[in-house]
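Retro notes (design track)

What went well: tokenization of the new backbones is finally stable.
What didn't: we kept losing track of which sequence belonged to which structure.
Fix going forward: every design gets posted as structure first, then sequence, in one message. First example under the new rule, 352 residues:
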């Protein structure tokens, strides 16, 4: 009886969107309801591969692809059956087309293409970075363009001026490492288990000052660079020898590392504000979870700061579904079934 009722209720939901994310080491699936004219997240599932890659100190692309292949049918089936949803209720499938690891992208695309072809469901390729860029809007409906978005993750560090869906103006981008990579590589030097970024940040927050000074790089240009910092960090740690393993020195090194990375991000945000005159800021991506970064940005006078929930700062399918849904609802996406998508390992969002 209860099942019949749930089925009846769901028959009213004629306009659902299934979203799939497999660009790196998280398998994500999500479902949105588009019937109200605004995307409403019904449910999402995420499966992290951290435990697997920990053994190797970083993401192993071949293993990541295999895990996506295993997780995708299980997560999708769970999501659909837990919410009494049927494939016939899907108006479209949104899948991450890039940027990301090619083999990983292929798993999500292959799975989505299979569903699309078998059930005649239109397929839409979504840019992963656009997903991050719009994720703060997904979780804060008060946030509207124009705003500056700082996307800081293990793979990306860039600032864009968001004019609207699909309209992004590049303000700054890293010329080498990403901020999350700088956190993770430094954490590795301090003997933290992968991914060490959040652990290094937690240790850094246990002290309020550091005896160590690290260089502030790329002051004169809009872009980011973290490779010089990485070298300086490696040198400081080496200089300390065995001392670097003592809790006090380790905490102060972590504090200095976090301060240097956060300083670079905050400095460039201030530069972006002065160039664009836009004072509404969104921060997205894994590093947006960093407490020190949020505290510094929050302390900036006259700035409105937005961020997605901590879960949506990390890679997830909800942000892919949200970006796809906004495109569909704005009439910006042509939905044709079945579609064939090529993975795009490199895909800057200003090319959208
Ligand atoms: O967005 P995300 O889940 O995956 C990528 O697309 O990369 O971001 C993961 C990155 C990792 O580099 C991780 O170390 C970093 O975000 N991260 C943090 C914190 N939480 C996650 N870095 C600094 N402080 C944190 N609290
Ligand atoms: Zn990401």
């Amino acid at each position: 009886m209860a099942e019949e009722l749930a089925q009846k209720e769901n028959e009213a939901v004629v306009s659902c969107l299934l979203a799939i994310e497999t660009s790196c080491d998280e398998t994500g699936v999500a479902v949105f309801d588009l019937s109200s004219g605004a995307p409403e997240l019904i449910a999402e599932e995420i499966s992290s591969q951290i435990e697997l890659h920990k053994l190797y100190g970083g993401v192993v692309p071949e293993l990541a692809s295999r895990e996506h292949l295993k997780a995708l049918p299980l997560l999708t089936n769970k999501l659909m059956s837990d919410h009494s949803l049927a494939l016939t209720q899907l108006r479209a499938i949104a899948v991450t087309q890039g940027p990301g690891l090619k083999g990983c992208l292929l798993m999500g695309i292959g799975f989505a293409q299979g569903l699309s072809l078998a059930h005649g469901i239109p397929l839409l390729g979504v840019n992963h970075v656009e997903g991050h860029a719009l994720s703060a809007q997904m979780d804060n409906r008060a946030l509207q363009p124009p705003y500056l978005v700082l996307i800081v993750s293990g793979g990306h560090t860039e600032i864009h001026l968001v004019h609207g869906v699909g309209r992004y103006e590049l303000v700054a981008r890293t010329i080498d490492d990403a901020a999350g990579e700088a956190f993770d590589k430094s954490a590795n030097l301090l003997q933290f288990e992968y991914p060490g970024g959040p652990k290094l940040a937690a240790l850094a927050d246990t002290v309020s000052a550091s005896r160590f000074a690290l260089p502030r790089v790329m002051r004169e240009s809009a872009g980011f660079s973290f490779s010089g910092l990485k070298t300086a960090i490696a040198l400081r740690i080496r200089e300390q020898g065995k001392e670097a393993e003592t809790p006090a020195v380790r905490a102060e090194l972590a504090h200095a590392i976090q301060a240097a990375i956060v300083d670079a991000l905050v400095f460039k945000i201030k530069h972006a504000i002065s160039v664009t005159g836009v004072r509404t800021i969104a921060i997205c991506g894994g590093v947006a979870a960093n407490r020190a970064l949020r505290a510094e940005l929050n302390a900036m006078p006259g700035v409105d700061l937005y961020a997605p929930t901590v879960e949506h700062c990390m890679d997830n399918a909800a942000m892919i579904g949200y970006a796809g849904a906004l495109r569909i609802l704005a009439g910006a996406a042509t939905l044709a079934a079945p579609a064939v998508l090529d993975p795009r390992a490199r895909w800057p969002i200003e090319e959208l």
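Added context from the reviewer: The longest strand covers residues 40-48.
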